[in-house]
Specification:
single chain; mainly alpha; Non-ribosomal Peptide Synthetase Peptidyl Carrier Protein, Chain A; globular
Amino acid sequence: MNETAKALYEILSDYAANLVEPSSGVATAAFLKTHLEDLSLDSLDVLEVVMAIENRFEIALDEDEVAMTKVVGDFAVMVDRLSAAA
């Protein structure tokens, strides 16, 4: 599992009890395709997840991009792009 996916799992597991830790490349790919709506996160949970991601990676996520986020992998793409630009 790459470092971004691992960190996202650690953050999301604090808010979504139904996550299964990805242990292989196939499981990581499935984790990154997990729909946020399947995690049963309420709006406060999403806000806390965004703040945790920003703190963990020392980045600022764009509000509009976050609003369009549908799967965990969308967060991974944003994190990788913003981290590379920093």
